[in-house]
């Protein structure tokens, strides 16, 4: 069939992004709209269907046809049935058959993955992971997502609805509380929220009493980007927050590399923009916690696709599914 295209969707708590993508992984057209789940799950689903329909019209205008839709959704998903089991950013979408609903409305196959897995799939298709058979992926955002690419394929484990949850590796059992309910996870050290909590704790404990970082906290305007700017400007508390992040990431990667016998990590997500503030502590910690690996052989790379990784990875699911079913 000539001029086929696929639709990639990245469904987040704030925005839903869709893209029309060709079979070589080029984005032909993209759209972004507010998710706004306050009017209910049905309305959000209808908006997403309308966005996909608009992409199908655009495909036809380009002389093509859409072969399927790939969805990347944060949280626990049943990728075999296309159900959202639980999404922390979309709590109303619990045990919800999002994939089948879209499939029924549009008459196209719909594939679904967790957003961090979609990131891994996208980076390995046309991004930093291209041609690298084995690597660990991390997405640093409000939380920490993870994925494993082994033998060139996304590792799916036993299909339990979660896999590659590197953000919930416990790296300090007595450490700070994590959103998952446990203590001391990587996410509680290396996410955007971990940076915020670190600074807020310093302020409430009297370790941060003045300066721009204190003012931001005091005015309720603290965010990861501002903490980054304060760290670059030399604020010791902001620097400590980023060096703790690097330490935690290095420790987690040392453990993963040792277990898997691999040496490459690709790091993306919005908070990875703070790279220059955490990469040295990360490398130092990786070296300190590695007994088998020749640390000079380790490759720690940044994502090259940025926000597009999950869109492209979701789209790739459709192509992989089709090549499997056509055998
Ligand atoms: Zn956790």
The CATH class of the largest domain turns out to be Alpha Beta
Small molecules held by this entry:
zinc ion
Number of helices: 10
CATH topology of the largest domain: Nucleotidyltransferase, domain 5
Q: How far is it from the N-terminal to the C-terminal residue, by CA?
A: 17 Å
Protein architecture, described:
This protein is of the alpha/beta class and 327 residues long. It has two domains: 4-122 and 307-325, Nucleotidyltransferase, domain 5 (2-Layer Sandwich); 132-302, Nucleotidyltransferase, domain 5, CATH 3.30.420. It contains ten helices and twelve strands. It has helices at residues 41-61, 98-106, 115-126, 187-190, 192-204, 212-218, 224-232, 236-260, 275-288, 308-325, and strands at 4-11, 15-22, 27-34, 65-73, 76-78, 83-86, 110-114, 135-140, 144-150, 153-154, 264-268, 299-302. It has a five-stranded mixed β-sheet, sandwiched between helices. Strands 10-9-8-11-12 form a five-stranded mixed β-sheet, sandwiched between helices. Strands 5-6 form a two-stranded antiparallel sheet. β2 (15-22) and β3 (27-34) form a beta hairpin. α1 packs across α2 (98-106) and α3 packs across α10 (308-325). 45% of the residues are buried. The protein binds zinc ion. The site of zinc ion has 6 residues, from loops.
């Amino acid at each position: 069939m000539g001029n086929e295209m696929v639709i990639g969707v990245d469904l987040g708590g704030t925005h839903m992004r869709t893209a029309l993508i060709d079979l070589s992984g080029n984005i032909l057209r993209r759209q972004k709209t507010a998710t706004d789940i306050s009017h209910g799950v049905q309305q959000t689903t209808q908006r997403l269907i309308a966005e996909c329909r608009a992409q199908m019209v655009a495909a036809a205008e380009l002389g093509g046809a859409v072969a399927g839709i790939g969805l990347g959704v944060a949280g626990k998903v049943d990728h075999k049935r296309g159900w959202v089991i639980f999404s922390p950013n979309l709590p109303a979408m619990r045990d919800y058959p999002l994939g089948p609903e879209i499939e029924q409305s549009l008459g196209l196959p719909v594939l679904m993955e967790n957003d961090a897995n979609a990131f891994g799939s996208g980076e390995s298709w046309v991004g930093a992971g291209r041609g690298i058979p084995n690597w660990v992926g991390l997405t640093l955002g409000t939380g920490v997502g993870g994925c494993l690419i082994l033998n060139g394929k996304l590792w799916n484990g036993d299909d339990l609805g979660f896999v590659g949850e590197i953000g919930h590796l416990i790296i300090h059992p007595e450490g700070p509380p994590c959103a998952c309910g446990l203590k001391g996870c990587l996410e509680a050290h290396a996410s955007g929220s971990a940076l915020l909590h670190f600074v807020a704790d310093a302020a409430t404990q009297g370790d941060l009493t003045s300066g721009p970082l204190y003012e931001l906290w005091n005015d309720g305007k603290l965010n990861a980007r501002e903490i980054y700017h304060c760290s670059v400007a030399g604020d010791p508390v902001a620097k400590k927050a980023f060096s703790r992040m690097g330490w935690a990431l290095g420790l987690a990667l040392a453990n993963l590399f040792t277990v898997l016998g691999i040496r490459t990590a690709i790091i993306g997500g919005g908070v990875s923009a703070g790279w220059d503030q955490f990469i040295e502590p990360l490398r130092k910690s990786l070296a300190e916690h590695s007994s088998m690996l020749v640390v000079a052989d380790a490759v720690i790379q940044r994502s090259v696709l940025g926000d597009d990784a999950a869109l492209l990875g979701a789209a790739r699911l459709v192509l992989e599914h089709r090549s499997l079913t056509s055998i």
